[in-house]
Each structure stands twice: as structure tokens, then as C-alpha cells.
Amino acid sequence: MAKKRDEVLLDELDDRERDESALEREPLSVGEALADARAQASDETRDMLPEPKPGDPDYDWSHHYPEGVDLYTHTYPNGTVVSLRRFKDIYSKQWLRSIRNLESDFDIQNAAIDRAACETAQEVIDAVPCPIGEPDQFDALFEAWQKADLDESVTPGE
């Protein structure tokens, strides 16, 4: 009898630890929750769920770009996901020449993002919230996108 009671207490302790662990995690965004639901659902149930839309974690961006193009995928803190061409793939000397008269860092960064992102990705980027007092999400996107392609064999100025 005591052994059975001990097993029940251990099960309750495991449940409590699992529940406390769940409470410590960040809540999922609607898009993340739907992506999880679509991934775990049976075929029948999956057919009842809405199709992924641009910005959802499980949205397929590949049909917005030419076949075989490598994409960089960025996840914003709110769970929104966007994919654009790799940083290393957008540059050419002719393009650098065409942006040489841009005056601010933002103008150059924006021109680079616009060159890399399809129209749908640009719409998703434009729709990302920008609350006052929080980190600038455009800067975060640009920095992460640029760093994803750092190649030690290329030095600034090349």
C-alpha cells in the first residue's frame, strides 16, 4: 500500500515539475501554435486547419524565389518568420555602383533588404510591430542576415 502511495506521489511530482517547466517557457505566438498544430495533426485534422500564410513559421517561401536559391530565414521575437535571399548572393559590383549615392546607413540597408526580399517578404517585414522602447527589429534582421553569411575568406573592401 505504501509503495503504491509513493508511486502516486512521484507521478504527481513529475506532473508538477512538467507544469512548472511549461509555465517558465515563453508563450507561443498564434502562428507558432498553428504551425505546431499542423505538424502534430492527423491528415484529416490538418485539412481543417488554415493553410500557412506568409509570416507563419511553417510557410513555404521557396515558391517566391527562383528554383535553387538559398534562403536566409529570420524569426522575429513575436514569432513572425520571413525568408529572403542570402546576404552574400545579392551583391555585385554593378549593384554597389547603383547604390553609391545613398547617404545613410539605413538607405543602404533598406536597399539591400529590398534587393534580397520578394514582395511578399517585404510586406511581412513592413508589418512587423515596432513598439517604442523595444529593440529595433529592422536592425536585428539586418545584423542577423548579414552575420549568417560572414565568410572569413572575404575581408571588408573586397
Fold and architecture overview:
The structure is a single chain. This protein is mainly α and 158 residues long. It folds into two domains: 1-51, no CATH class; 54-147. It is 49% helix and 6% strand. The protein has a two-stranded antiparallel ribbon with strand order 1-2. The model is unreliable at 152-158 (pLDDT under 50).
Defining traits:
158 residues; 49% helix; mainly alpha; two-stranded antiparallel sheet
Strand order of the largest sheet: 1-2
Looking at how many chains there are and whether they match, the oligomeric state comes to: single chain
Specify the structural class.
mainly alpha
Low-confidence stretches: 152-158
Distance between the termini: 77 Å
* Element string (H = helix, E = strand): HHHEEHHHH
| Share in β-strands | 5-15%
- CA radius of gyration: 22 Å
The largest pleated sheet is described as:
2 strands, antiparallel
How many domains is the backbone divided into?
2
* Average predicted confidence as pLDDT: 81
Strand segment count = 2
- Number of separate helices: 7
Overall geometry: elongated
- Fraction of helical residues: 40-55%
Summarize the structure.
The protein has 158 residues and is mainly alpha-helical. It folds into two domains: 51 residues, no CATH class; 94 residues. It contains seven helices and two strands, in the order αααββαααα.
How is the secondary structure organized here?
Layout: H1 2-24, H2 30-40, H3 43-48, E1 71-75, E2 81-85, H4 93-98, H5 105-116, H6 119-127, H7 137-147
Antiparallel strand pairs: 1-2
